[in-house]
From TrEMBL:
Protein name: MarR family transcriptional regulator
Top-level taxonomy: Bacteria, Pseudomonadati, Pseudomonadota, Betaproteobacteria, Burkholderiales
Top-level taxon: Bacteria
Gene3D superfamilies xrefs: Winged helix-like DNA-binding domain superfamily/Winged helix DNA-binding domain
Natural source organism: Variovorax ginsengisoli
Domain HTH marR-type: 41-174
C-alpha cells in the first residue's frame, strides 16, 4: 500500500504502525524508478495541504447546509468582523485568496445585504467592505461552529503543545517570502540553461 493510501486509511481506522526506520534509513531519500521522490509520510507541505483541504471541505459542507455560506465567504466575514472595514486587496494579502475571487465574494455578499461597499476616504481607488447588522448576526452564528471545530481539532494536544504549535505556525508563515525567493534562485540556477535552449 502506498504512503498516500496508508495516510488516507489512518483518518478512518487505527492501523498497525510499521517498524521504525533506522536513522541512516531516515536520512536516505526515497528513490523511485525516476530518481528522488517525496516521502509523503514526512513531507510537511503535504500534511499542511491535506489538513487545510479536509478542514475547509468539512466546514464548507456545514456552512452551506445550515447558513447558505461558502468557505470563501466565511473567510471574508472573519476578517471583516476583526478589522471592521477591509478592501479586497487587503483580504487577498492576508489569507492568500485571489483578488478576483475576493471581489466576486464581496459582490455576492453585497447582493445578500451582508456587507456595504464604499470608497475609502483616504484612497478613492479602494472600495472598503463593512459588515451590515445582518452580516454581523450571521457571522456570530457561524463563529460558534468554527470555534467548536477548532476545539475538537486541537483536543489531542496539551495546552503547552497548542502554544508551541501556534508559535511554529507563525514562524513558518513568516518564512514564506524566503521560500519564494529560494525557489526563484533554485529555478534560475537549475533550469536557466534549459530555458535558453528551448527558446533558441
Amino acid at each position: 500500500m502506498s504512503a498516500s493510501k496508508r495516510l488516507a486509511k489512518a483518518s478512518n481506522t487505527t492501523a498497525r504502525r510499521p517498524p521504525r526506520a533506522s536513522q541512516a534509513e531516515a536520512d536516505t531519500p526515497d528513490m523511485g524508478a525516476g530518481g528522488e521522490v517525496v516521502d509523503l509520510e514526512r513531507y510537511v507541505p503535504a500534511f499542511l495541504t491535506w489538513i487545510a483541504n479536509k478542514l475547509s471541505r468539512g466546514a464548507s459542507q456545514h456552512y452551506l447546509r445550515v447558513f447558505d455560506v461558502g468557505i470563501e465567504t466565511w473567510r471574508c466575514m472573519v476578517l471583516l468582523a476583526t478589522e471592521g472595514s477591509i478592501s479586497a486587496q487587503q483580504v487577498s494579502r492576508v489569507i492568500g485568496m485571489d483578488k478576483s475571487s475576493v471581489s466576486r465574494c464581496f459582490k455576492s455578499m453585497q447582493e445578500r445585504e451582508l456587507i456595504t461597499l464604499e470608497l475609502d476616504a483616504k484612497d478613492g481607488r479602494l472600495r472598503m467592505a463593512t459588515l451590515t447588522p445582518k452580516g454581523r448576526r450571521l457571522h456570530d452564528q457561524i463563529v460558534g461552529v468554527a470555534l467548536e471545530r477548532e476545539r475538537v481539532f486541537l483536543s489531542v494536544l496539551s495546552e503547552a503543545e497548542h502554544e508551541t504549535l501556534i508559535r511554529l505556525l507563525k514562524r513558518l508563515h513568516e518564512n514564506l517570502p524566503e521560500v519564494e525567493s529560494a525557489t526563484e534562485r533554485y529555478v534560475a540556477q537549475r533550469f536557466a540553461r534549459a530555458d535558453k535552449h528551448s527558446g533558441a
